[in-house]
Amino acid sequence: MHTPDYQLLIKQLLFTPLAYNPNQEIVYKNNFRMTYATFHERVCKLANILTELGVKEGDTVAIMDYDSHRYLECYFAIPMIGAVMHMINIRLSPEQILYTIDHAQDDIILINSEFLPIIEQIRGRIDTVKKYVLMTDDSSDDVRTILPLAGEYEELMQNASNRFDFPDFSENTRATTFYTTGTTGMPKGVYFSHRQLVLHTMGILNSLGTHTRHANLHQEDVYMPITPMFHVHAWGFPYIATFMGIKQVYPGKYIPDVLLELIEKEGVTYSHCVPTIIHMILNTPKVESVDLSRWKIIIGGSSISSAQALAAMKKGIDIFVGYGMSETCPILSLAQLTPEMLQKDDEEQAHIRSKTGRALGLVDMRIVDDEMNEVPHDGKSTGEIVVRAPWLTAGYLKDQKNSENLYRGGFLHTGDIANCDKAGYFKITDREKDIIKVGGEWVSSLELEDIIHKHSSVSEVSVVSIPDEKWGEKPLALIVTKAEDKKTLEREIINLIKEFIKNGLIAREGMLLKIHFTDEILKTSVGKPNKKVMREKYRELFA
Fold it and tell me: Do residues 395 and 177 touch, judged by C-beta distance below 8 A?
């Protein structure tokens, strides 16, 4: 007897949720709220709009919007009709945005009115886009543009049918494309299939559902992303939340006080963000009047120090790290604590919560040396993290050379240097390109950052390498602080580092650290410290 093939398609995440709750809400700021039943209808409406505009299987539909209910509708409607969703990074430069539009061969762009000036600036050089659909929070706004608009999103919605027969096709069909932030050269396109996105959803859900006391995601949670929806599918959580049928809250722009207001008003209990965002939230005055004791938050994108984790824990936040990258869909590991670990004091917990964590089920994550030999799990031996999993990108779009380099030896190479302890908890000690070589010895910039963060007067810190005639390189700590007496602060930081060297916790070459106080840490378009730019800037300053 032949069993019909059952394809793993994104439509299964929408039409077979764990909890059938048609009256559950999806909220966009204070502007819009709808039930899941309405959401299903609007996904069908958007599918009809796109097909009537000529979108067919294999075409590419791009989005330029803030985190909104509209974006969530695009997450489903576009790939469910067999098209490819291109999530344009709105924080890239106009030239980089132009490159990604042409490289992805976008056919239609759905664009928030705030981003019209960017596209108007490059319109004459865009070769592939045939039509634009305007997105506004108020469809009655008088928006003027030179772009050839096919209509306004909500007005088109009003006239569209709320029924659509979504087709079956191969689960290996490409569903999404987006571009890495491009710290070297132009951004690189990564892409994912329906199968990969469904398996990623299942993998994360399985890991988050295994804990009862912390870091768990359940039916009573209220989800709000604070990682842009254009960045690695907002870590896959819009798909997870929709599949679970839980309440979702989309905040638009990331304004700390607005985020706190939504957490309070809508009862948000689950989020994810980069360290920069949690730092902003914990340092706005409004935080003192908001109860965050029910908030669980995954930190990723860049490392968080144990001191930062401890500061969040003091506000009652259940904070822990998730690890991955654009090429991995993204989540590979989570720093969830065992019941025994939850008995430890806050400082010990903060140390574990800020680790890279343990690999998810179905993820083969290893630390290897230059010959691809696995290093011991002793918490000390370091090497590069390499990985295999069913949801990794197949490669870089139209880039055979970099794709082959990404998968040397049959594993995806992350470029992250790490160790792993006997309990299976990984700890990234540096990016391969960020590690500092002082007189032949490797010095971890992340370890130095973690130590410096322990000083209460340090708001932000990033450690990069600068050239040195005697040692080849030495570490430079760029520090943001509100302290007025910076000479005393510098002396206290050096003494703190001496203490860690004395106890054998970091290499003695850390004593060569130079300190520079600055007003801001330069960041990439997704909020990570931009160490490449900082190295170039301060290399000249301290030459």
Answer: no
- How many Å separate Cα 309 from the centre of its chain? 18
Contacting residues for 27 by C-beta, under 8 A, at least 6 apart: 33, 69, 247, 248, 249, 250, 262, 266
DSSP letter string over 281-324?
HHTSGGGGGS--TT-EEEE-SS---HHHHHHHHHTT-EEEEEEE
Summarize pLDDT for 101-142 with one digit per residue, the tens: 999 999 999 999 999 999 999 999 999 999 999 999 987 778
Q: Is 327 a catalytic residue?
A: yes
Mark whether 437 is an active-site residue.
yes
CA–CA dist 142, 131 (Å, integer):
19
pLDDT number for residue 10: 98
- Which residue shows structure tokens 């539009």? 101
Asked if 472 and 478 count as a contact pair (C-beta separation under 8 A), the reply is no
* Pairwise CA distance, residues 276 & 425, whole Å: 24
The residue type of 97 is I
Radius of gyration from C-alpha coordinates of the chain: 24
Distance of CA 479 to the CA centre of its chain: 24
Pick the catalytic residue: 173, 177, 180, 269? 180
DSSP string, 391-450: TS--SBTT-HHHHHHHTGGGSEEEEEEEEE-TT--EEEEEETTT-EEETTEEE-HHHHHH
Query: pTM, whole model, 2 decimals?
Result: 0.86
- Catalytic one among 131, 437, 454, 514? 437
CB 388 within 8 A of CB 431: no
235 is catalytic: no
Q: Which of 35, 442, 514, 518 is catalytic?
A: 442
CATH number for the segment(s) 434-541: 3.30.300.30
CA distances from 511 to 382, 462, 476 (A): 21, 16, 11
Rounded CA separation 75/112 (Å): 16
- Which has more confidence, 259 or 430? 259
> Which pLDDT does position 1 carry in this prediction?
57
Residue 538: the pLDDT is: 86
Residue 463 structure tokens: 């450690």
Contact partners, residue 484, CB within 8 Å, separation at least 6: none
Task: Check whether 340 has a pLDDT greater than 60.
Answer: yes
The pair of three-digit structure tokens given for residue 211, joined into one six-digit string: 């804990």
* Torsion, Cα of 7, 9, 15, 21 (10° steps): 120
Q: Which of 44, 11, 403 has the alpha carbon at shortest distance from 173?
A: 11
Distance CA 130, CA 53 (A): 10
In the set 41, 327, 473, 490, the catalytic residue is 327
168 secondary structure, DSSP code: P
Closest CA to 13 of 215, 205, 165, 162: 205
Backbone angles phi, psi at 258, to 5 degrees: -65, -40
Task: Of 460, 481, 380, give the one whose Cα is nearest residue 422.
Answer: 380
Q: Quick check: is 180 catalytic?
A: yes
Q: What's residue 440's pLDDT?
A: 62
